[in-house]
Amino acid sequence: MSGYRLRANVLICGKIEVLTGLHIGGGRGKTEIGGVDQPVIRDPASGFPYLPGSSIRGKMRMLLEYALCLVGLSPRDKREPGSVHECGKPDCPVCQIFGTAAEEGGLGPSRLIVRDAFPDAQTQEFWKELDTELLYTEYKGENYLDRLTSRANPRFFERVVPNSWFNFEMVYSVFNFPEVDDLGMLPYVFQGMRLLEHSALGGHGSRGYGKVRFHLYMENASLPLYKPEDYGRGKIRLPDLDKVDRKTLRTLDGVDVDELVADLRKKLPA
Ligand SMILES: [Zn+2]
């Protein structure tokens, strides 16, 4: 056979809407402001909170591992059944989409890249108008009752406020590895996104934090797909998500993933 080849990159992008206060920790130290002992992660250049790609991707991976009954099975660290799943089998969606440490080989690089998601222009304006003691965020006190004395122990969490929208971008690469149907695995990416909507992004999800909703950017009812040769011809024009009207984006309810995959197959070079 001929060599391994990139067949196309599929762009999965749009906006993530924050529906309930969201906390992705930024560590402590000099970022401590206004008595908050749990600050959120921020872009040091702009001061704006953002959603790290690793948080989005890591949560999607974990939820898929549970959905596919892979938790405790072939964990990366053989001593720790709770560690990241990694079997390296060619029919394993998790290993293929998210990658393995490559000891097994044969699967090629991880197919899914998830970028850090930054607030859109409208959200930046909204944050600047926020009447709050913190910079662009809210803080929420949580009381833990001492079971014996009933004394309240307050802790303060910084949160990204509801109705904040972040531009997100994922790139899904389609290769020609034998025995591996990359486009056929794309529905698992959507499954991960949907599972994330019914779970939570960031910390304290069981206490109501971090409910999010994806809004997908589509072109002609499909996803943008770029072939390797397009990159050499100046044909790549990524959508400017700040200029895209939120109302033109689709929630995942409105996306028929099987139809989408069938359409992408037609566009894919052999
Ligand atoms: Zn696996």
> Residue ranges: pLDDT <50 for 5 or more in a row?
none
Give every kind of bound small molecule, once each.
Answer: zinc ion
Straight-line N-to-C gap: 14 Å
The count of domains is 1
Give the overall shape: globular
Judged by helices, strands and strand pairing, the structural class is alpha+beta
* C-alpha Rg (nearest Å): 21 Å
SSE series:
EHHEEHEEEHEEEH
How much of the sequence is in beta strands? 15-25%
SS field, number of helical segments: 5
Question: Whole-number average pLDDT?
Answer: 90
> Mind describing the biggest β-sheet?
7 strands, antiparallel
Helix content: 10-25%
The count of strands amounts to 9
Detailed description of the structure:
The chain is an alpha+beta fold and 270 residues long. It has one domain. The chain is built from five helices and nine strands. α1 packs across α4 and α4 runs antiparallel to α5. Zinc ion binds next to α2.
What would a concise description of this structure say?
With 270 residues, the chain is α+β, with helices and mostly antiparallel strands. Helices cover 21% and strands 20% of the residues. It has one domain (6-131, 138-267).
Which SSEs are present, and which pair or pack?
Blueprint: E1 6-18, H1 53-67, H2 93-98, E2 112-114, E3 118-119, H3 121-128, E4 138-145, E5 152-159, E6 165-175, H4 182-197, E7 212-216, E8 225-226, E9 250-251, H5 257-267
Antiparallel strand pairs: 1-6, 1-7, 1-8, 2-6, 3-6, 4-5, 7-9
Helix pairs in contact: 1-4, 4-5
Bound molecules: zinc ion.
